[in-house]
Design goal:
alpha+beta; Sufe protein. Chain: A; globular
Length: 160
């Protein structure tokens, strides 16, 4: 079995940081209407700008292995980082996942997120892999991170 496929299966069977924890600054619930995947995600942030620190991400995810594993990788990659670093990771994930296989992903930028490179070849699965990430950005806004700075930052250098 391919190392990356194994990583996705490992994260889906034993998701890291799973389970909703308190305290939290914001909670969101997102659903992928095309397949029924769901995630409830909580975020705790120290600060309100791009230099704020992600102190915790906890979640309850129900759905396919890709959706659950992606939420697990998200939590691993962003906890302890600044909002700006977390958004850079999200932008790298989105760029890779929406590339239809043209971008393999930069491990320095997205860490274990590179395991999802193959998902980009299956457009119907991209929303599964991005569900937790879009919930995360929504939670950041609800936690008080400046929405315009967030939007400006996540759209830089990303081709639609």
């Amino acid at each position: 079995m391919d190392l990356y496929q194994e990583l996705i299966l490992d994260h889906s069977k034993q998701p890291h940081h799973a389970g909703l924890r308190e305290p939290f600054d914001a909670e969101v619930h997102h659903v992928n209407p095309t397949c029924g995947d769901e995630v409830t995600l909580r975020v705790t942030v120290d600060g309100t700008g791009l230099d704020g620190i992600i102190r915790d991400v906890s979640y309850d995810s129900q759905g396919c292995a890709i959706s659950v594993a992606s939420a697990s990788v998200l939590a691993d990659e962003v906890i302890g980082r600044t909002v700006q670093e977390a958004l850079d990771t999200f932008a790298g994930m989105r760029e890779m996942l929406t590339s239809r296989g043209k971008v393999t992903g930069d491990e320095e930028r997205i860490g274990d997120g590179v395991a999802f490179a193959g998902v980009s070849k299956y457009p119907s699965r991209v929303k599964c892999a991005l569900l937790g990430w879009t919930a995360f950005t929504d939670a950041l806004i609800r936690a008080g991170v400046d929405a315009q700075a967030l939007t400006d930052h996540t759209t830089q250098g990303v081709t639609p």
